[in-house]
Amino acid sequence: MNKAELFSQIQKKSSFLCVGLDADIQKIPAHLKSEKDPIFTFCKEIIEQTADFAVAYKPNIAFFEALGPQGWETLQKVNELIPKDIFTIADAKRGDIGNTSKLYAKAFFEKMDFDSVTVAPYMGVDSVTPFLEFENKWVILLALTSNAGSMDFQLIKDETGKPMYQSVLEKSQQWGNSDNMMYVVGATRGELIGEVRKVVPDHFFLVPGVGAQGGSLADVAKYGMNSSCGLLVNSSRGIIYASQDENFGKSARSEAQKLQEEMSSLLDTYL
Ligand SMILES: O=c1ccn([C@@H]2O[C@H](COP(=O)(O)O)[C@@H](O)[C@H]2O)c(=O)[nH]1
């Protein structure tokens, strides 16, 4: 999916919601555990109930990998189930020496046909560029993450006062552009999102951290929205575990709808 197609979906649905599929076998409703593939059944119901409001789905690969070989099969089946006009993100946080990154890219883009994969920038140019060699596929580079540990490295300033996340943003401009690269920017970072936006005015941000991590959707839009929206805001646990009984799908739908309605009004305000 290209940038224009993504923006068109955002306009059509009045939404920039990404539903995170962090499908934890310990947390899914008890009645699903007797199913042949409980995680698949769970994700299927979540996708069917939320697809009207979502412009992206983000399976976090950890939750599938943790199930062993069966988990990879489940991930593939889940990805195939997602409607083709909805953007898909493999949240895998990959990145290694060039020849290894190349095979990670092949796995997620060719074998599994995801639209995008999250990539860690720490190993630099040769670890990231192999992911950029696939047409209509995207790298989503970790820039300013939502967790407390992001302070350990990302906010360290160099001798000119520039924080490390800013160096990541600037350097990576030499690798990709706003048609094949997005950045992870945590919703918990408040007005720092505006600082990121100043450095990369045209790129999309994948923004985790609303819902369970307490980030403010209004602040994300205020500081981060650009003329093509430029935001995919993720919520995982706040949607998929809205209830853990037989009605979990309907509860997820209702949470997704609430976020979409807020997003619709933010799009009216800022676009
Ligand atoms: O900075 C980051 C990068 C990735 N994540 C991932 O996003 C979701 C958030 O889940 P919630 O339940 O909505 O908190 C999860 O998959 C994380 O691994 C992040 O939170 N922050």
From TrEMBL:
Q: Which Enzyme Commission number(s) are on file for it?
A: 4.1.1.23
Q: Which domain of life is it from?
A: Bacteria
Q: Name one GO biological process term.
A: 'de novo' pyrimidine nucleobase biosynthetic process
First-level EC class: lyase
- Single GO MF annotation: orotidine-5'-phosphate decarboxylase activity
Biochemical pathway = Pyrimidine metabolism; UMP biosynthesis via de novo pathway; UMP from orotate: step 2/2
Catalytic residues, chain numbering: K93 (proton donor)
Q: Which residues form the Orotidine 5'-phosphate decarboxylase domain?
A: 16-252
Note whether rRNA-binding occurs among the keywords.
no
Which reactions are catalysed by this chain?
Answer: orotidine 5'-phosphate + H(+) = UMP + CO2
Q: Which UniProt keywords apply?
A: Decarboxylase, Lyase, Pyrimidine biosynthesis
Q: Which SUPFAM superfamilies match?
A: Ribulose-phoshate binding barrel (SSF51366)
Keyword Disulfide bond on this protein?
no
Family to which this protein belongs: Belongs to the OMP decarboxylase family. Type 2 subfamily.
**NCBIfam families reported in the protein's UniProt record:** pyrF_sub2 (TIGR02127)
State what protein this is by name: Orotidine 5'-phosphate decarboxylase
| High-level lineage | Bacteria, Pseudomonadati, Bacteroidota, Cytophagia, Cytophagales
- Its gene is pyrF
